[in-house]
Design goal:
single chain; alpha+beta; seven-stranded mixed sheet; five-stranded mixed sheet; 15 helices; 14 strands; 40% helix
């Protein structure tokens, strides 16, 4: 069997890999003595992939917003039996999610793992779309969309994305709109499924006290055999200007206190693999140093009553977009924004201290090593990094390689007033 083994002595972990005949990639991290097992079957396909060339066609098409999420819902439909019931009878918890760049189907179990794995592979590879079940789903998803639209935390986030991005589809709700999903039909679902659910565009990751030989055997027997190979999917993204669309967006909703999102739009999103992951780590280091719960800024603002424990910051960057977000509740969000901008004008070495960098770097490494005790953390982190062309087993090495000078350089390039936006949701008066 053509198996590759990746090993990292520092974290004392191994990663087994095999590419199936279909082109499907299978990875396995053994965890001896663990009672829990976890499997994820994921595709490199998310809500932003709305313009592409379908498999077997030459012209690009534009599909309705929200179709990737709609497709995830519909894959759980079977002619006779409920998928959730099947997994439940086998003692497993099954779930799925769609985000901007990927869709994943997963289960955790403590028994009957191989039967559950066979079921996972079979149901993801055998869609069942009819005119009737597609129409029925529209009502269900429309309710979900309206529920999120009425959620102030969700709205302040998407308003921020809408202010930052002019053209990029990341500004659109993952579920689409009530209007856009009305244009989804079974033919379009099959078109998206056949293109993005090709085995060559997918990966299975498994972690637990299991046999890789048995895993491969089960997948080989469960995979459908009439697959069509797709070498590379042609995805089309609109040209996104460097400038933000609008600096400020404000709305009123049912909320007890004002909510805010302060966004910083990234401009260098062409990086891939290790370089992209490094940028992600470096930016999150900066945000933790400046705004983490142990930072001077956080504690000063907290004592003044301008922020509370909901205050936090993070960076995310993927195929065609990237942004830092500083978020929370405040009696005066505009003052929080102004204080942050004044804070950024200070001498960089006075706000980004090398001793803070060393502390946060150690903390991040410790959190990762602790995370390796959780099968959920391992699996979900693996999938998130995998579609960035990076393997989890190299995570600690990248963290170790980051230096203080990387922090200073990144700060100067990313945190500017020009690429910032402020989104606020005020309580209804």
């Amino acid at each position: 069997m053509d198996i590759k083994i990746y090993e990292n002595e520092k974290i004392r972990e191994k990663l087994y890999y095999k590419k199936m005949k279909s082109g499907l990639k299978v990875y396995f991290m053994p965890k001896e003595g663990y009672t829990k097992q976890y499997a994820i079957f994921a595709t490199d396909y998310g809500s932003i992939d709305n313009v592409f060339t379908p498999i077997g066609e030459k012209e690009t098409v534009e599909v309705p917003e929200g179709i990737a999420h709609f497709l995830e819902h519909k894959l759980f439909e079977e002619p006779e039996q409920n998928i959730f019931d099947k997994f439940s009878r086998l003692g497993a918890n099954v779930n799925a999610y769609t985000n901007f760049t990927q869709t994943a189907y997963l289960f955790s179990s403590t028994e009957n793992f191989y039967d559950n794995l066979a079921l996972l592979v079979e149901f993801v590879q055998h869609p069942y779309f009819t005119d009737e079940n597609v129409e029925k789903e529209k009502g269900i998803i429309a309710q979900e969309i309206n529920m999120y639209r009425d959620n102030p935390s969700w709205r302040v986030f998407f308003n921020c994305l809408g202010a930052m991005y002019n053209e990029n589809p990341v500004k659109i709700d993952i579920a689409g709109t009530v209007e856009s999903i009305q244009n989804i039909n079974k033919e379009l679902l099959y078109k998206c499924y056949n293109t993005f659910y090709s085995p060559t565009n997918m990966v299975i990751f498994i972690v637990g006290d299991l046999s890789f030989d048995e895993i491969i055997k089960v997948i080989d027997e469960s995979e459908k055999k009439d697959y069509k190979e797709v070498e590379k999917i042609n995805r089309v993204f609109p040209e996104e200007p460097k400038e933000v669309r609008e600096k400020f967006i404000e709305e009123s909703m049912m909320t007890s206190s004002p909510l805010f999102y302060i966004g910083f739009k990234d401009t260098n999103n062409e990086l891939e693999g290790e370089k992209r992951v490094r940028k992600d780590f470096i930016t999150n280091f900066i945000l933790d140093m400046l705004f983490g719960s142990s930072s001077v800024f956080y504690n000063d603002m907290y004592e003044e009553g301008l922020i509370d424990s909901s205050f936090g910051a993070y960076y995310t960057g993927k195929k065609s977009y990237g942004h830092s977000m500083i978020v929370g509740e405040s009696k005066d969000p505009k003052e929080v924004y102004n204080r942050i901008m004044l804070f950024f004008e200070k001498e960089i070495t006075s706000i980004l201290l090398e001793e803070d960098f060393n502390r946060i770097k150690k903390k991040s490494m410790g959190e990762f090593l602790m995370g390796l005790n959780s099968v959920e953390f391992i699996a979900n982190t693996f999938i998130s990094l995998y579609f960035d062309d990076f393997l989890l087993i190299d995570y600690l090495d990248i963290l170790e390689s980051i230096e203080y000078k990387d922090i200073v350089e990144r700060f100067n390039n990313h945190f500017t007033k020009d690429n910032s936006v402020l989104s606020i949701i005020n309580p209804l008066r």
